[in-house]
Amino acid sequence: MLPIADGTFAAYRSLEVLIRVGVQFVVALLVTMIVFGLLHSYASNAVTKSRRSPVISFGIGLPSLLVVVGLAGTGYLIVDTSIGVFFGIPLVILGTTVVPVVMAIGLTAIGCTIASRFGTDRLWVGIVGGALVSGLAGLALPATVAVATLAGALGLGAGIRVLFSGVGTARPDERTVPPANKI
Fold this sequence. Notes:
The protein is mostly helical. Helices cover 79% and strands 0% of the residues.
């Protein structure tokens, strides 16, 4: 049904394990550095939001990730039809732009969480740690799928929460408490 996708997965699985680990590490590191270079404040806020409440980010992000991946897959399938140029290409572009960004944010959140267990809480350590997690997941295809799903869900959930957190009266850290009434 999808000969290109079947060939890609077969080529991926035919690579040596160490090459697969190295390629996943380098690609994750480069994509994450590009994402954090272009979207520094947004990505940093999303990592912080994801680390503060990962269950909420995962709960919002998993269904959203399934929708984005489903739309991109649908767009890929309808590209060859007569309406594919009008509908398929934008859906594929949506998936190929959103998924790597949210996976980079999610991998960095995972890396920062692991690094905080060792006593450091720097963003660059989280970026390298997330790339290491991605590289180690390259040992087995199910581990890669699990890590990609977890990172994508955390990143997309936190990204959505950061995107819509501006709706409201003010930022929670800028609120003031009125003085108590004295009698």
